[in-house]
Amino acid sequence: MGIVRENGKPDATATLPRGAAWLTDQVDLLRLAINGTIEPTTRAEYAQFMTPAPIGAFMASMFRIRRSSIRLLDPGAAVGSLTAAFVASVLSRPTPPSEIHITAFEVDGFLAGHLSKTLSFCREACQEAGIDFSGDIREEDYIAAAAKEASGRLFEAGSGQYDCVIMNPPYRKIRSDSEMRHDLRAMGIETSNLYTAFMAVAASQLTDGGEMVSITPRSFCNGPYFRPFRRFFMNLMAIQQVHVFESRKAAFQEDQVLQENVIVHAKRTSRKPDRVALSVSTGPEDRPKVRRVPYCQVVSPDDPNCFIHLVVDDKGSEAAERMSRLPASLADLGLSVSTGRVVDFRARNHLRPQAGPGTAPLIYPAHFHDGTVRWPNGVTRKPNAILMDSQTDDLLVPAGVYVLVRRFSAKEERRRIVAAVYDPDGISDGPVGFENHLNYFHRGGRGLPADLARGLCVFLNSTLADTYFRQFSGHTQVNALDLQSLRYPSQGQLRDLAARVPHITDDQDAVDAAVEESLFAE
Fold first, then answer.
1. Which residues does 164 contact at the CB level (< 8 Å), separation at least 6?
2. Which of 115, 315, 374, 412 is the most buried (most CB within 10 A)?
3. How far apart (Å, rounded) are the C-alpha atoms in residues 213 and 57?
4. What is the pTM of this model?
5. Ordered domains of the chain (ranges, CATH)
């Protein structure tokens, strides 16, 4: 057979050898032809975003395993682009394996039909290289199939059936009451998104020393929702390399996907490497910049949350070093951070456009102004007040000074962490409600001393805190757990920051100068 053109028909005049380049070309032409035919509703249902050839080639190049017989798993194969990339990479080795067996799962019957063509191409290329090839297409749900095979038992170390896993798993939330969530729990896995479910199950199916390369959103690196997954995954796997794309649009630009994606190469072993390769590029075809950092800087053995820190440049490394020198945790300061209690759509009957008798101020992110809260501001269409009665008592906090942080920041904002001080002076001498899109710092559920609050706000709005935060957070959400995990200045240092910036300001240079002089001046 010659080269398959976009119409799916062979070109009888083509005479290229059926090697790695031939295989890659065949499958990427197939991917491009099929990608344009998928209905948007089908793409949404199955979360189908097929991997472009340059990314597949880069992912396949990360594998270091050298075995004479390799069993590869592709648990969300689509048309098999990643499988083909792996086979092409193996064919290019000076000493390729003697045998390759592929197990590819694809629940969409339409794509599974085209996946068979890809495995045929892989077989032809392997036969020409003298490699025994076999392939098994599983047209079924990967998680359900794994749960059935597990039969309710927990996976045991070294009991896996695959030497390598390569994947671009689907991204979709999993309902807590769904059959899939039940299947995952039966396997000892607790996670709320399909992509981390794929990663956890596949890690469990690897042999001792087996390797996984996956491209996923970066959101699993931090936050409370992925904490059980991180603990499960890091118990089985040791990260070898993480690649970060500087541009949100670069990885899947054909499908206009704006997720911040990372490629993770991990090995099933209890022995952690001394160093991890952290690489970064703008797009898949750019030459990556690589830094090798101590493993403990990526995943600290002392961190119960297992946050994954990606310090990809010298600026980030300096920020990490400086943050490590700060003396206090929130507990040391006697402070806590919580998420705003007012979920507006649940309290709709108690919300009021403006303050009136028997109401308390209701603060939204829209009330932020230059590091302070301007209420009411005459700009937002959000409610400005909430009724005070027996049904809203638990939604309000006592009068006092609080530091607020937006839980979500806009992509175009220069900082991910955006903080403001709520001072009741001139607003209200009674309770206040903080809407659920805010986090609030408090002391035992009550307000903070005014100078401590101002200093804390200055620190949180600094470039230092923001740069460090971005190392483990690849999305615009700021969780209370993220803020709890930071190191902080001492109470004395926070009060000194407040003295240096007596009036909260949005002047970034002034904020950063105060942090430099107060915390790091020799």
1. 63, 65, 70, 71, 72, 73, 86, 210, 211, 212, 213
2. 115
3. 11
4. 0.83
5. 20-322 (3.40.50.150), 330-520 (3.90.220.20)
Q: Which parts of the chain register pLDDT below 70?
A: 1-17, 35-50, 151-159, 247-259, 410-413, 475
E strand residue ranges, 155-236: 162-167, 206-217
Range list of β-strands (E), 269-374: 275-281, 289-294, 336-339, 351-352, 359-363, 368-369, 372-373
Q: Which residues, at least 6 apart from 16, have a Cβ–Cβ distance to it below 8 Å?
A: 2, 3, 22
Q: Which two tokens stand for residue 364?
A: 């939204």
**CA–CA separation, 211 and 28 (whole Å):** 24
**Phi, psi angle pair for 240, to nearest 5°:** -105, -40
Tokens representing 264 are: 């993770």
Contact present, 424 and 453 (Cβ < 8 Å) = no
Task: Classify 511 in phi/psi space as left (phi over 0), alpha (psi -120 to 50) or beta.
Answer: alpha
Tell me whether the omega of the peptide bond preceding residue 376 falls within 30 degrees of 0, making it cis: yes
Residue 421 has phi, psi (to 5 degrees) of -95, 130
How, if at all, do strands 261-268 and 275-281 pair?
A: unpaired
* Span 393-433, pLDDT tens digits: 999 999 999 999 999 876 556 889 999 999 999 999 999 99
- According to the model, what pLDDT value does residue 248 have? 52
For the purposes of burial, counting CB atoms within 10 Å of the CB of 53, is it exposed (0-12), middle (13-18) or buried (19 or more)? buried
Q: What is the pLDDT of residues 115-127, one digit of tens each?
A: 999 999 999 999 9
Residue 133, strand partner residues? 100
Which residues are registered as beta bridge partners of 471? none
Residues 6+ apart with CB under 8 A from 45: none
- Is residue 30 a contact partner of residue 118, using CB atoms and an 8 Å limit? yes
Question: pLDDT digit string (tens) for 307-327?
Answer: 999 988 888 889 999 999 999
Other residues' Cβ atoms within 10 Å of the Cβ of residue 287: 8
Q: To the nearest 10°, report the CA torsion of 364, 365, 370, 376.
A: -20
**What is the CA 422 to chain-centroid distance, rounded?**
31
The CA-CA-CA angle for residues 361, 367, 373, to 5°, reads 80
User: What letter represents residue 232's amino acid?
Assistant: F
pLDDT at 17: 59
**For the packed helices 450-460 and 491-500, what is the interaxial angle rounded to 10 degrees?**
80
| Structure token pair of residue 46 | 């199955």
User: What sign has the CA pseudo-torsion 183, 187, 192, 194?
Assistant: negative
pLDDT in the model for residue 60: 95
